[in-house]
Write a structure and sequence with these properties.
2 helices; about 80 residues; about 70% helix
């Protein structure tokens, strides 16, 4: 069973998802930077960095949906 939503509700959901992705990207970036200073964890900084990049990609995709061309490269 699927819910039918109008365009305003869809926009609100995308904006909430974008906000969540931005918060997660910042959080994982901070974890990555903190873990780099700790010698006792080898995979911690790498995993946190990968997760930060993943959320940044999601953020860019949602930005493109909300504001087409916002991240367009000149050329």
């Amino acid at each position: 069973m699927t819910d039918v939503v109008d365009s305003d509700e869809l926009l609100r959901r995308i904006q909430r998802a974008r906000t969540c992705a931005a918060e997660e990207a910042r959080s994982w970036q901070a974890r990555s930077e903190e873990a780099e200073g700790q010698a006792n964890t080898e995979s911690g900084p790498a995993e946190a960095a990968v997760r930060a990049v993943a959320y940044e990609v999601v953020l860019r995709v949602l930005d493109e949906i909300l504001r087409p061309g916002a991240h367009a490269k000149p050329g």
